[in-house]
Every structure is written in C-alpha cells, then in structure tokens.
Amino acid sequence: MERIEKITRVLTMPPLVTGLTVLLLYEVQALNMMEFIMAEGCLLFFPALAYPFREIFHIGKDRRSGQRTTAMIFSCFSYSYGFIWSLTSNAGMVCKVLFTSYILSVIALLIANKLCHFKASGHACSTTAPMVLLSWQVSPYLVLPSLGLVLAVYYSSIKLKQHTLGQLIAGSAFSILAGLISILLFNN
C-alpha cells in the first residue's frame, strides 16, 4: 500500500501540479502564449530542475532534506523572476495573480520553514493553489476535483510520515491566503 502513497507524492510534485494548472489556464485563454511560456518556465521547468540538480551535487544531509532545500532555492529564484517579469511587462491580470500568489506562498513557506523551523508542507501549498486559481478563473466546480487532489496529498504525506496534519493545513492555508490576496490586489 505504501507504493500508492509514494506514487501519489511523485505525481503531485509541486512543479507538476503547477505546470498542469498553468496549462489549464492557457487552455481557457486566461493566459496568452507569452504568459504561458513564462509561467511554465518559471513555475514548472526551472523548479523541476532542482530534483536532478540535488542528485548530481548531493545537496543536504540526507536526500529528502536536500530535495526540500534545493527545491526551495530553485523556486525562490524562478518565482521571483516570473513575479518581476509579470509586473514589468504587459502581462495580464491573471498572470500577475498567478505569479504573485506563488511568490507570496514561497515567502510564507520560507518564513515558516527556515525562520520558525515549522515544516509547513510545500506539497499541500502547491496542490491547494490550483483549487483557488482554477475555481476563480475557470469554474467554481473545479473545487471538488482539486479538493480530492489535496486530500490525496494529505493522506499520502501523513501515511509516509512526511508531514503532520498541522504542517499540511499550514501549507494549504498559505496558498489560499496568497491566492486571495493576489486576486484582491489585481482583480480590478
């Protein structure tokens, strides 16, 4: 049974879930081609490079902590670049909301994880973000399948002892708050 939980964790890696969210936003024409390319590059491709980078350079005391650290560093740089690009280019409102919500989420995770030493879940954060963004931009009915994805991540994370329920809820809460703040900032 543990195999299903491990597969769930791999299939819901933050860059993959985010990449699918960006694709769905592009498909409903909430993002133009340039915004799609920038979002996939900054939120999927560059952050996904953290995993092979960690393996090549053996970052961290152990594999899991090295993955978390490397993923956080890669995400900080690429999310920051995308956020700055969205504000300084002619990017649309949805693109600005997308990048702002992700940069706010990573800032919240950094504060919780590095400054407060509370292991808030990046996995829960990244699977909750689509629930906010897609239900706002595509259809409120997307809350249900998104919630199913979030619950699968919660279950697998607890079963594999990666996170406690509190750490998972914190990750989701960061994502929800970041999404709502971003929507309020840019939804004129």
Automatic annotation (TrEMBL):
Coiled-coil residues: none
The UniProt record lists the keyword Membrane: yes
Protein keywords: Membrane, Transmembrane, Transmembrane helix
Chain segments annotated as transmembrane: 7-26, 32-53, 65-85, 91-112, 133-155, 167-186
Name of the featured protein: Phosphatidic acid phosphatase type 2/haloperoxidase domain-containing protein
